[in-house]
Amino acid sequence: MELKVDRPALAGQDIDPNTFQRVWNRVMPEQTTLPDNAVPAVPTVPPATQPELPPVPECPAQELPPVPDCPAQELPPVPDCPVQELPPVPDCPAQELPSVPDCPVQELPPVPDCPGCPSRPSVPGCPSCPTRPCLGEAAKGDVDRLRELMTLAKTGAMAGRALARRSNGPTAKAMSVLAQDHRSAFRRLSAAYFLITGKRYTPQCVAPVLPASLPLALRQQFVWEQQWELKNNQAAQDTADPCLRALYQELAQEGAYHAGVIRSILEQMG
Hints:
The protein has a two-stranded antiparallel ribbon with strand order 1-2. The protein contains six helices and two strands, in the order H-H-E-E-H-H-H-H. The protein is elongated, with a radius of gyration of 67 Å.
């Protein structure tokens, strides 16, 4: 059956007959003759051109029923706790502690009197213990000896500084200590002199002349330290002041120690 194309109908629908013919040839290759009554399918109306839906009606506001107030509930009263009386604490029986035995009184032996003490005013409350002077009026007989020892101490300090400058290493350190000891001896003797006389004494000392050779200079200082020891021992024997005696004995020990150090240095040099 042969289809016919209604070309006047196509022209009324604003469709190009030639374009429709090409589409027909691709779809119906066996039937190349386009029917006269063939019409294209009616296109679907796009969503934009669809009719508008009616508006959704607004829901009427519904008023909720009010919440009823809760009736106040009175709680039952808390019953009072009965007062409980605690049983009384029994009294502790009094315990008698055993008596402490009396300590026997021990009598200390009496302090013997000092034998050979010269007659001097005694200490109040202790008639058997006479006083001993210490750096007071009774020690003025040591003033000249103190001046002599102060001069020797200052000379020994100057010699120690000179030996420290001419040596190095352990020898220089030992000579520095020697010089410091003699400076300390001078200050101690000067303080004792001031306590006895109330005056200061500044000796005028000349720097000692030491040999050019270091071993000979150490030998000369060794002999000097021995003389320093002897003079202080003699002063300790002659004085009646206990404080000066202790001071002289300490300075004599320092002289013996210095002589021993110098001897040790010379032994290491040999």
